[in-house]
Amino acid sequence: MDQLTQFAPIILMFVVVYFFMIRPQMKRAKQEKTFAAELKKGDRIITKSGMHGKIVDFSEKNNSVIIETGAGKITFDRSSISMEMSKKLNEPVAEKK
Prior knowledge:
Elements lengths: L1 H36 L6 E3 L5 E8 L4 E6 L2 E6 L5 H8 L7
Antiparallel strand pairs: 1-2, 2-3, 3-4
């Protein structure tokens, strides 16, 4: 019984780290993966580096997207698309009362 009380703080620490750090990170990674899979032609996006554009085509061979920008067409990896910024960009505009 003495050994159990000795290791209880360490066990509690691992449980806290799992629920506050590891689990939310896994959930966010899953959301980003589904977001990248649900992209379609015509979606307006922002990359993590700040490039704005519209999806023109997909390259399944390289798991990338072709984006049309003001400078021309550029190929980006699907994982380089920012989920938060792109969702904000595509949200419908709320009418002001």
